[in-house]
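Is iron/sulfur cluster placement plausible here? Inputs below.
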Amino acid sequence: MSLLEVQNLHTRFPTPRGTVDAVNEVDLRIESGEIVGLVGESGSGKSVLADTIMGIVEEPGEIAGGDIRLHGDSLLDLPESERRKIRGGSISMVFQDPMNSLNPTLTVGEQIAEMVRLHQPVGESIRLPAELKRKLIGSAKNSEAWRKAIEMLESVEIPEPESRATDFPHEFSGGMRQRAMIAMALAAEPDLLICDEPTTALDVTIQAQILDELRDLKDAFDTAILLITHDLAVVAEVCDRVNVMYAGQIVERAETNELFRNPQHPYTQGLIASTPRLDAPTEALQPIEGNVPDLIDIQFACHFAPRCPEATRECYEIKPDFRPVGESAENGTQTDENHVAACLRRGSQEERI
Ligand code: SF4
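Reply from A.M.:
I modeled the complex. Tokens:
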């Protein structure tokens, strides 16, 4: 049984212009202790998929179909009170902009200690005004939760964690705030950590450090990570497996090395060709023409057809299903379920159109 299984998920948003199918027929699987990438351009539905897994899709958005299973149990069957316990407990999330997620009126240590209290049996958390909460938490600096908060700051390599724990978020640099967010998310010792563009706002040096730390933390805490990014270089750096998402759908999935060595879907090939590489001149970059389509009532069967250099008439009429596309699948000798793509012009000779 997988840690997380997303099956045929459909999340939509009614608008005056029509229904936005932000996530459409998506399957996703994450095993314990692995880092799985979800990559695609802005507007491809990655963040809506993460919000749907977390159970934080805002109205009028709704889950129109499919299932999300954690340890085999459906999350969609649970009442909101149970979902809330899972959110920040078994599943935690780190967002791109930590300033929007951290409370500016509480110190960083207080916020991590609060998360520990909420999700671990070291004392009850209560909903109180920030001023009163600060007094209560501040008076309990010898508490187990506070000590755990210091440990968490140390684990994400915040220097002098004991004194920095008493700083407010605005006293931290951008990289330190993101580390604090990761510490807070891990404080509940989640089974799954969802990181939505966790390093996008940071410079490349800090980005590399945080990606390194995520990998180390995954091992230390045995936490699976779903890493959402538009940046293939980030995926190449840390992910075990990758799902490529386009216009609300997964279009290719493979182990990371295999995906970069042998990309099959024309969209994945376009993403790789448009990603800068240290060993290639920038003139060799080939951006994908056009934009992600408006997700309202898409009429063409393959969502990538208007941008695809290989599109034929059939691509607008026949919906491409997933098919094995690894080398063994290409020569027809055996299936290769580890590497699949949804493209009519890939797979074995018999399958191709
Ligand atoms: S099905 Fe057709 S349009 Fe879609 S990716 Fe394949 S070749 Fe391109």
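Short version: The longest helix spans residues 204-221.
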